[in-house]
Write a structure and sequence with these properties.
The chain is mainly alpha-helical and 286 residues long. Helix content is 48%, strand content 4%.
């Protein structure tokens, strides 16, 4: 009996030791999984935007994310085709809803470019009219390139490329005058976005100069321009008044104010005034 009990006790000890050995590798395995999980950390975006789900981003954060993602492409397009990066980014932000618009989501169309002579893929989207045809791209970069080519290759936008690349205000106004959009406040909207988010700094990076304050007598540069622009509009010269301009073009001061949406008689040197009733054209973009 003593021998039997001793052999049973020894058997139990062996079993206990066996269980201890099996538990050790399990603990090691768990430790490895925890370490590998901690190493997978997403790249940080400005203002920790990358840590928030996209649905929780404010509009300002979406704009910052858009600039972060596409400023490099905009600068590259500026180097190749001459369209200021600030203008490209501001238009992209405005037209695409900072990348979250329906047309951008469905077609990667960041600038609302309509089909016209397009032979590629297309989508239909309600704009000025129901179910208008818009260009569809596989990549966002294709939309940026098409935007550059669209402006560069159409005569109606040729005047834009006579402006200084750092003069984003002239570019913004020139786009409106060339028929880019029917919204009269379109230039102000672009300028507002550029100045709020300091997009002109990307132009300076491409041009290799630091941002400087504009000289006080910048308007003097415009005095050398002919009084009549290529579009037949009047460029305000030194000594011009609404009355003298109205006499020159045989229209009333009131008509002049209506054509240019002027609240008073104040005008400034270099300002472009329409001297005929505006013919609304179909806009090229959304």
């Amino acid at each position: 009996m003593a021998v039997f009990l001793t052999s049973c006790g020894g058997s139990k000890k062996v079993t206990s030791t066996s269980r201890t050995k099996k538990s050790t590798p399990r603990q090691t395995s768990v430790t490895k999984i925890e370490r590998s999980t901690k190493e997978i950390i997403p790249e940080k975006l400005p203002n920790d935007i990358g840590r928030k789900p996209t649905t929780a981003l404010s509009y300002k954060e979406r704009v910052q994310h858009y600039i972060y993602e596409f400023s490099g492409i905009a600068k590259s397009e500026m180097k190749t085709y001459g369209v200021p990066a600030s203008i490209t980014l501001a238009q992209g932000i405005l037209e695409s809803g900072a990348g979250y618009g329906d047309l951008t989501s469905r077609a990667k169309n960041h600038f609302g470019i309509k089909c016209h002579d397009w032979e590629g893929d297309r989508v239909y989207h309600d704009d000025d009219r129901l179910q208008e045809c818009f260009r569809k791209y596989d990549e966002a970069s294709e939309s940026f390139r098409d935007h550059s080519l669209f402006l560069k290759n159409r005569k109606r936008y040729a005047r834009l490329f006579t402006f200084n690349q750092k003069d984003y205000k002239s570019w913004a106004r020139g786009l409106r005058e060339a028929g880019y959009a029917t919204d009269r406040k379109y230039p102000e909207k672009l300028i507002g976005i550029i100045e709020k988010y300091r997009l002109y700094e990307f132009d300076n990076e491409v041009l290799g100069r630091k941002h400087r304050k504009k000289p006080k007598k910048r308007e003097d540069v415009v005095i050398t321009v002919a009084s009549v622009s290529q579009n037949g509009d009047h460029v305000v010269q030194k000594g011009d008044t609404l009355y003298s301009i109205s006499r020159r073009y045989k229209i009333s001061v009131q008509e002049l104010k209506v054509f240019n949406n002027l609240a008073d008689n104040n005008i400034k040197i270099g300002q472009v005034l329409k001297v005929t009733a505006e013919n609304e054209e179909e806009e090229d973009f959304n």
